[in-house]
């Protein structure tokens, strides 16, 4: 049995969990305060939110800087940690995958369960992330080797295992005729002002139609494969799906904790992908139409060196390796 903790913010963590779970031969139980993703076939334990009236003005939520969110007196936090602990005792998992929570990783390890952490881009050298990485057996990096958007302290760099991108959409090695024009692919975890809306509104005022991508996974896949250029943020899952469909892109970094998207954007620029990458906050008078014209000139086949389509399987192999080691140690 594998436990898989899924962060509730946005949708990317759930999409990644679904893709990896499908590649595992061992039963997987999801644990999250978010709903199970469509297509999840295993058990899914819905956890209480870790917020509530008593956390409006939280007391010592970072435990002196060692953790990220453990407000004193948090009844939701108490309920969710108790539920996770009870599942650990009942299910006795061979490993727990954490995407992402330092607190859940620490809880698992305190129960004697080996932990695999899903890495995220950004500067993660704060004490809380350092603790989470210190206690992890492996850090799965859902990006290709050589991209290096994650900064950690030196002892933990050896734990980083790049597996390639992980997407809901099947990867293709070819590009087809594209008739869809400029498309917009949004995420669901944005903070503050949305730079994608600023770019799309400016393009529409310039007379360039922008079609927003919505719908099922199949519809999203079709829209991406048909678009001549897609505008999106620099979230891991958005970039993975764009790469899977070999679509030229305009990628705009959003403000996120630990400069997550800006670190990924800079890494994409260094790596070289068929996209115009806006890593820093754009100026109010940025010429978005010129960016689109630049993006149109890229050949989407350039995404081939960025994604191989087997990232989920490679991640599952690492998880199985850790679980097998845990099983052997228990004998």
TrEMBL record:
- Residue ranges constituting the Glycosyl transferase family 28 C-terminal domain according to the UniProt record: 212-273
Pfam families according to UniProt: Glyco_tran_28_C (PF04101)
Could you tell me which InterPro entries the record lists for this protein? Answer: Glyco_trans_28_C
MF terms in GO: hexosyltransferase activity
What PANTHER family does its record include?
GLYCOSYLTRANSFERASE, UDP-N-ACETYLGLUCOSAMINE--N-ACETYLMURAMYL-(PENTAPEPTIDE) PYROPHOSPHORYL-UNDECAPRENOL N-ACETYLGLUCOSAMINE TRANSFERASE 1
What is this protein's record name? Glycosyl transferase family 28 C-terminal domain-containing protein
Originating organism: Amnibacterium flavum
């Amino acid at each position: 049995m594998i436990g898989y903790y899924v962060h509730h913010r946005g949708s990317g963590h759930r999409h990644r969990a679904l893709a990896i779970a499908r590649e595992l031969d061992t039963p997987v139980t999801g644990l999250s305060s978010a709903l199970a993703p469509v297509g999840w076939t295993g058990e899914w334990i819905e956890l209480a939110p870790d917020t509530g009236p008593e956390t409006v003005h939280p007391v010592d939520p970072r435990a002196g800087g060692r953790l990220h969110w453990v407000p004193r007196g948090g009844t939701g936090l108490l309920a969710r940690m108790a539920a996770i602990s009870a599942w650990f005792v009942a299910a006795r998992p061979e490993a727990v995958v954490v995407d992402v929570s330092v607190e859940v990783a620490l809880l698992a390890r305190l129960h004697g369960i080996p932990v695999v952490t899903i890495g995220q881009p950004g500067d993660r050298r704060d004490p809380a992330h350092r603790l989470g990485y210190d206690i992890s057996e492996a850090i799965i990096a859902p990006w290709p080797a050589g991209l290096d958007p994650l900064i950690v302290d030196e002892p933990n760099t050896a734990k980083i295992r790049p597996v390639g991108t992980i997407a809901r959409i099947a990867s293709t090695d070819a590009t087809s005729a594209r008739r869809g024009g400029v498309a917009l692919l949004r995420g669901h975890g944005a903070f503050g002002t949305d730079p994608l809306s600023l770019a799309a509104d400016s393009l529409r005022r310039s007379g360039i139609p922008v079609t927003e991508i919505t719908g099922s996974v199949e519809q999203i896949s079709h829209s991406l494969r048909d678009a001549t250029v897609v505008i999106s943020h620099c979230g891991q899952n958005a970039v993975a799906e764009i790469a899977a469909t070999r679509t030229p892109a305009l990628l705009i970094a959003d403000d996120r904790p630990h400069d997550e998207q800006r670190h990924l954007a800079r890494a994409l620029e260094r790596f070289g992908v068929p996209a115009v990458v806006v890593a820093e906050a754009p100026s109010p008078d940025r010429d978005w139409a010129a960016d689109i014209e630049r993006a149109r000139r890229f050949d989407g086949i350039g995404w081939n060196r960025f994604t191989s389509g087997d990232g989920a399987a490679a991640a599952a192999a690492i998880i199985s390796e850790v679980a097998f080691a845990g099983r052997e140690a228990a004998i």
